[in-house]
């Protein structure tokens, strides 16, 4: 499910943006949900909620009260990394869009082909961001993060344990850790990173996975590990 947020304080523009977005996603065969807002502050508050899960934001820039750039800066300050597509009737703020790492800047009236390009780019980035990609010899892997149970450091290699197999990758453990989403994976021991979604329970100094595998937890990291596990649950 691809989740889109559209924010514009002009009712007509909001409706047009929604209709065009629906047309693009339906033609692409992408299952979607769209949330609309006519107030920047309400939109920012909604996206700042830890339980909120959205994939792209289409945001007008000129708005009463808080404008789109200000809203984007607040979202970035709070750690929200979703792609932002700015929409505006003027190019005046185009350069400021780079300060918040905006994906695209579209001018009104929206050209549906340019909107299509922006949405497809955001969707592709979202798809790529849901999997771990690497190469072993002449074989290329693209493993959904949800299929990974845990990772284990084995000398200069990293073993990736999935639902179906153990794959050995010639990569430093610390480098592999950087490629994993921090909200989903936790390095609970110098030699282990666990997918919190695959953890069944946590006892003192060990995790038990849903498959019954025990994963050690460092004594020094136990309290932080427990906090992270409880928060994830």
Notes on the structure:
The chain is α/β, with parallel strands linked by helices and 233 residues long. It has a five-stranded parallel beta sheet with strand order 2-1-3-4-5. A five-stranded antiparallel beta sheet has the order 10-9-8-12-11. Strands 13-14-15 form a three-stranded antiparallel beta sheet, with no helix packed on it. The relative contact order is 0.09. A hairpin with a 2-residue loop joins strand 6 and strand 7 (139-144). The model has no long low-confidence stretch (mean pLDDT 88). It folds into two domains: 2-128, 3-Layer(aba) Sandwich (Rossmann fold); 132-232, OB fold (Dihydrolipoamide Acetyltransferase, E2P) (Beta Barrel), CATH 2.40.50. The protein has helices spanning 11-27, 40-48, 68-77, 94-97, 112-128, 173-178, 222-232, and strands at 2-7, 32-37, 56-60, 84-88, 104-107, 131-136, 139-144, 148-154, 157-162, 166-169, 185-189, 192-195, 199-203, 206-209, 214-216.
């Amino acid at each position: 499910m691809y989740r889109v947020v559209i924010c514009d304080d002009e009712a007509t523009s909001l409706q047009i943006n929604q209709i065009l977005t629906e047309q693009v996603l339906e033609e692409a065969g992408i299952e979607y949900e769209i949330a609309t807002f006519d107030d920047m502050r309400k939109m920012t508050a909604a996206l700042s909620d830890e339980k909120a899960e959205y994939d792209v934001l289409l945001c007008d820039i000129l708005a009463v009260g808080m404008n789109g750039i200000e809203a984007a800066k607040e979202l970035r300050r709070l750690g929200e990394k979703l792609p932002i597509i700015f929409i505006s009737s003027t190019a005046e703020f185009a350069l400021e869009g780079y300060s918040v790492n905006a994906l695209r800047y579209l001018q009104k009236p929206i050209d549906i082909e340019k909107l299509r390009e922006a949405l497809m780019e955001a969707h592709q980035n979202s798809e790529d961001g849901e999997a771990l990609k690497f190469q072993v010899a002449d074989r290329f892997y693209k493993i959904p993060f949800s299929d990974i149970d845990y990772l284990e450091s084995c000398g200069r290699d990293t073993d990736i344990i999935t639902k179906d197999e153990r794959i050995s990758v010639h990569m430093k453990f610390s480098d592999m850790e950087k490629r994993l989403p921090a909200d989903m994976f936790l390095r609970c021991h110098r030699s282990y990173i666990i997918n919190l979604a695959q953890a069944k329970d946590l006892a003192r100094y060990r995790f038990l996975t849903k498959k019954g595998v025990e994963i050690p937890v460092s004594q020094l990291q136990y309290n932080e590990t427990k906090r992270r596990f409880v928060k994830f649950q």
